[in-house]
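Collaborator request, handled under Task 6.
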Amino acid sequence: MKDTALTNVHKKLGAKMAEFAGYNMPIQYEGINIEHETVRNSIGVFDVSHMGEFIVTGKFALSLVQKVTTNDASKLTIGQIQYSALTNDAGGIVDDLLVYRMDEDTYMLVVNASNIQKDLLWIKSKNNIGADIKDVSDEISLLAVQGPKAVNVLQELTKVDLSAIPYYSFKIGAIAGIPDVIISNTGYTGAGGFELYVQNKDVEYLWKQIFIVGEKFGIKPIGLGARDTLRLEMGYCLYGNDINDSTTPLEAGLGWITKFTKEFTASKILKEQKEKGLLRKLVAFEMVDKGIARHDYKILDANGQNIGVVTSGTHSPTLKKSIGLGYVNIENAIMGGSIFVEIRGTGVKAEIVSLPFVKQSIKSKNEPSKAL
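Structure tokens returned to the collaborator:
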């Protein structure tokens, strides 16, 4: 297992550590529910340094990004960020990622930890146009400072006006005296906050300074367990669960990041899928009867026929009920419709609902605009 630059800090704090995507990561500290509520109501800090970062540069940088990603990166201005996906030759999702426009001819691609090598090889295999690609994943640490009080804490540590950074945008500036930190108004929690990209040598000092300032706000370290419950309450896809090499962006409800105004890998296949109509679709559901849906549980119709599969499921700490995502046959993907999750051989009733599950002041927390 790989360590992050903060592994020893997590151990000293008493974190429950476990392997995740090849890294020794903190899963929880006090407990998932407590940590979840801390982020929803105040401020928590995640070490997500296991994420991968590629720098694409040169006069052909945009051409390569356009070729391998589904969204239209030509719409990005310097300082903007875009949610996108890499597709394989059959239209399946190689990974979902963030695309940062760093300057005129430089882009940063932020990919999932479990897919770093796979993504790098895939992008390089499509690079017959001379763009320069560099994997800087092992040089960069990433802190996700999330929650409604995140801006209050971080503003005390920087002269950069954080209120002037729109969601899915970034600035580069000093925080806690550390120069050239990428201050990104992004997150995976739906609670607002920022993600900070910093050199490995500086991350422990930055972590300590954030916690010193954040003490009066009840700041806490947060593990990956709560990160999963937080993202699921917002309906954000998790690679390897809700999306993978055999699911397409259209099936996953990611048509808004799939732009047919340009050509990209398998764009013709996906356009044909859109025109012919989907056979299955990712839906959100809340359990009506008692039971927790888990990954790979069968989804049944009222007659007990198998119509799909659960991809993610948990008990929502905010809603105090069980929620989940799963793929079902398109004819069963009816808003408000009933489905049944097979739990220990019994079909347990659930209802298909709209996302996000937690409908909290979305606009006030600068949730992502689909304009990009």
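The cover message to the collaborator said: "Confidence is low (pLDDT under 50) at residues 361-372. Residues 141 and 337 are 44 Å apart (CA to CA). Please let us know whether this matches your experimental observations."
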